[in-house]
Amino acid sequence: MSITDEVIDKIKDQLDMVEVAGEYIQLIRRGQNYVGLCPFHMEKTPSFTVNSNTNTYKCFGCGAGGDVIEFIRNMEGMDFVDAVKYLADRAHIPLDHSTKKVTTKEWDDFYEMNREAALFFMENLHSNSAALAYLKKRNISLDSVKKFGVGYAADSWNQLYTHLKKKGYKESQIFANGLILRSEKTNNYYDAFRNRLIFPLIDLRNRVVGFGGRILGPEEPKYYNSKDSQIFTKGNLLYGLHIIKEHRNRERILLVEGNIDVVMLHQYGIDYAVAALGTAFTKRQAQLLKRFGKDVYLCLDGDEAGKKATLRDIEILRKEGVSPKVVSIPDAMDPDDFIRKEGKDAFERLLYDSKDAFDFAISFYKSDLDISKREDYIEFIKRIGNHIATIPSEIEQEIYMKDIAKKYGLNEESLKKEFLVQRKRGKEIQDNFTQYTVPKANHRIENLFVNLCITEKVNALEFERGDAGRYLTNKGYKELYRRILDEYEKKEEIELSSFKKTLQKEARIPEPIIQQLRKVENFDAKDFTEAVQDVLVGLKSRSSIGTRRELKAAFDAAVQKGDMDKAMELMEQLDNLSVQKVEEND
To answer: pTM of the full predicted structure?
Structure first.
């Protein structure tokens, strides 16, 4: 099996040496390093050191050292290929790059092309008065422009395209790298970024992997990020993290909404700010926050959608062992606006006054209720009970239930019983839903899936985070899901009637599927959250059953042919599928 350098680089970038080594030995933090007893030789005084800056290890007793791949090779007695396969599976990195016949030179060409585009955008910036005026208006200094490599994409259909062609890049390369798009009407290529302030997206190896653009005029979408490509996955990166990587002090890391927020916070001395990239927060991004900051702060939009996103981020972070703090900015101001008006000290006071994750949840679930009324009071307790169920640690659950019982005058044992009843009921509902949708519903679950997507953007982003697209079996629904995500790249809400008309003109999706597309009504936020999770479970379970049937048929065929090597391989895949199903049901 051939493994590309790109896969190896991704493994080294995405897996935290501290986390991997910490599963084998106890590590204690000392400054920016972690130390422990070496697993490769007997010792009483810790000499095994993990450097969190370089993501490598070194034992000053026996001399062992290397990266995360070398560590697993030595710990598990694996050869290089098996260690890479093991770690790639852990990091959810597909090893099928080798089947795409992408050479190391082609990967390098993509990175070099992006670097060339970044330089081109930077030159554009300094020769465009409108872009410079915008920077001045936003109080973005030239030092910040240089630090983050900010540029400008001209209001032109093909300026970058023409420039890269002159540099020798092929149309197919530029298109695959997401720098140009193709018109469905004329089939002509045009620049993906036009009339936008450009923020290069840089990975942990200081390579330009994509771009984020902020429109200068009133057009939509206001923000636009490079689409995922062979070298770029939005959910695997945080804007500004390459700068934080170089800092010695990683006591704090702050997640904000936008690129300009990050630039301005750094400019005013809050040099531990990063931003997600216009998509649902992912497990990988949670791991990065954990890796680069001892204390994690969330400072997202203060509107209803922003608060819902904060709750989802909290749940993801908790699963990674992080209990974040939530920063609220008065008068619904952006971090950018607040720090320009009030300064660094005032912003850091907001961090000092931040709420812990559970207190934030209490405030959110109580915000639309009047708990002096019996019905609202009961609803509030149910909401909190459901929220506590999302906390992985049973000890934390116990502590929070004690706090709630004491603060709201409830009998602690009664609260625990109600909590257990709710948790059991939720499990039964989920199980029943799965049983119903898998054998009987055919494509009904996929229909509900796209309707939930079209109803609210947060639902679509939650499905995207759960990689739901891979479980769709109907090509029409797959294409519809892709089109919905494309629409949400441009806008916050989809106008249903005009969207249907567009789909009908494109004629790529069967008419019956388009006609069944409708928004789900009379759902509150809690119902949506449960429905999204239920649909995701149903899709996964149905996919699992289909995969199991295929594997079983292939296994029987291999046995009949006497190909026992193939049969054993298929048997292992069936076993893994069973383990996966048990883990999902736990």
So the answer is: 0.64
